[in-house]
Write a structure and sequence with these properties.
Number of helices: 7
Helix content: over 70%
Structural class: mainly alpha
Order of helices and strands: HEEHHHHHH
Strand content: under 5%
Number of strands: 2
Number of domains: 1
CATH topology: Arp2/3 complex 21 kDa subunit ARPC3
CATH architecture: Orthogonal Bundle
Length: 172
Amino acid sequence: MNNTKHLALGGLLIALVAVATMSIKIPMPATGGYIHPGDSIIYLVAILFGGKYALLAGGIGSALADVLSGYGQWALPTLIIKGIEGYIIAKIASRKLTHTKLRAKDIMAILIGALWMVGGYYIAEGIMVKSFVVPVANISWNLTQALGGAVIAVPLIFGLLKTNIVELSKDK
């Protein structure tokens, strides 16, 4: 795939994460943050397209959604947390072209990435509010977001692995 196609695919995946993140927002009372389906797209990008795309789409797409949705104070932590979340998942899953089925390793990768996200937001919120007691209230909200993302992502990944959509994005 040439550089133009890489750039186009990256931009498309960033936009997809941003739109999914902004599409449905359930407010989290304690932080002023929100639960959203954006993680499902980060998981999908990580498993299907790999670390480079997951890092960029997860970080930039999620941070962009925060800025556009009025949560600008979360943009920098989100850029770091969501980008690394996607990268962790991709590196653990390390999908090869020969793998065309969803594997237990993929599910474990999502769980580990989700735990990173929960821990990352706990630390970020603790720093922002200058207390590591307050963020405890949002651990369950962040776990709910991660679980919801997995519930959405797993069937999507399963279905997309049965198509040649990922194959079309590979170098020929």
